[in-house]
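Case study B.
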Amino acid sequence: MRTQPYGGKLFASEIAVILLALLFLVPFYFVAVNSFKSFSELLVDTSGLPKHVEWHNYQRAWEVLHFPRALRNSILITALSGIAMVLVSSMAAYRLLRRPTKGNRLLFTMFIASMIIPFQAIMIPLVKVGNWFHLLNSIPGIMICYAGLGASFTIFLYHGFMKSIPLEIEEAAVMDGCTPYGIFWRIVFPLLKPMTVTVLVLQSLWMWNDFLLPLLVLQKPELQTIQLATNSLFGQYMKQWDLALAALVMGILPILVFFLLLQRHIIQGITAGAVKG
Amino acid sequence: MRRWLTSQPMQQTVFVGPALLAYAIVMVLPFLLGLYYSFTNWNGVASHIDWVGLRNYKTILTDDPDFGRSLWFTAKFTVAVVLISNLLGFLIAYLLSKPLKSRNWLRTLFFMPNVLGGLLLGFIWRFIFTQSFPALGQATGFGFFNLSWLGTESTGFWGLVIVSVWQGAGYLMVIYIAGLTNVPSDMLEAAAIDGASGMQILRNIVLPLIMPAVTVCLFLSISWTFKSFDLNYSLTQGGPYGTTESVAMDIYYEAFKNNRYGLGTAKAFVFFVVVAVITLVQVSITKKREVEM
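Model:
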């Protein structure tokens, strides 16, 4: 866009956006300040700052959520599934692009077409299939679920990106006696790094925040993710806002920190994913 | 390396096999199985399953007020959220594409709600609507805050719309900003010199040029909202009296609460068809409007 001198009109826009941004932040303010209040104070005065800081809420939320366990499960599931998704999908995309036989072209079309299938359309039989293949109540099981559910979009992203990698590089490697697997892992995969970052960013946000799939396939309390633990806390202590708000703050913090640390990558990843999508 | 390891069938298996296997187990098989179950009276546990033909589909169309109501709710909800969140997302993007001093900061702030999942957002806003709004109403006297938020059908509906817009606008903003930075500035200057007003420039130059971003944003926002589950589940729990139950929730309850898996899978299949049709129609309409640069 064109550059204007910084004048009255821009200043007015700036004020307008800042006000709007503050409005966006209000919910965070309410949750944060009230999570430090005692239950009685929270009911009498929701908008002010706490008169004295009630750390006890956090102690209780920590125990009720089994926070360390939930955090570990969420991190493990997101990280392992992300890695699995990147590995299997980048390999598949590579083969589908570099060896466009009739069968492979059909496979690729099938992967792309199924992006349209909403998860809710398959979730009921998925539980049954998950039972047959022993995918329920296990972290490797949910990894396979995520790898399969995320395969279409991930293959689509890698496939688009790989088109820009010149074939000459690979041909040179063949001359040097590199095997097809060596070419992929030593030469192509490192070149895919920007897309790998995009994939990991987009899919991690999805998996971290996902509620429905874990709700269906992880029934054991030991495997509860942050979303599941928060949900059962709300089921049990519906109206105890002092406890619930502290739990919400704890649930929000890890992903918020992740976002603030990696925000440049996340925003770039979303732009890249959207342009390709 | 041994020859058979690098043979074409072996390469095909190694490269495509793992992804295809996971995809077949998790997507293809459940999809086909669901289609089959939708013609049966399966209840989720019984090993004996009867073929009932089109009865489930007939029930959905003629004898299931819940499905019709949730579909109608979801349609209205989608229209409201898609319109408002795209307008707001575009407005913010438009303002942030100007050389404002705080633009990087603000971009981060507007995006922030989006990194939290629908479940937590719903719980957060349940507190805002039921505890903070009444307090604000008392302090300010605004009637808006004193409505019985989430307690009636329309406040439940608009409550969900507000939270969805709050969640989605920042994401759409990021895509619109990317679109807007690709609009060549000389074109805008030329139009301004020719005496075009700000509105005319926006309508006749900017909008046609960012049509690809509009396509993506409409696609994304329709697909999020139409499939909405987490937010309804945690914010209103579908209430009051099921009036804010989305289709996704109705399918979930039909199968996992009412144990009518056959009917649930039939609903799921109808849902799939509706999503597919909407997506294809919408993409083909907006694609036509894109301008080649």
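Chain B has 13 helices and no strands. The remaining cases will be described in the next quarterly update.
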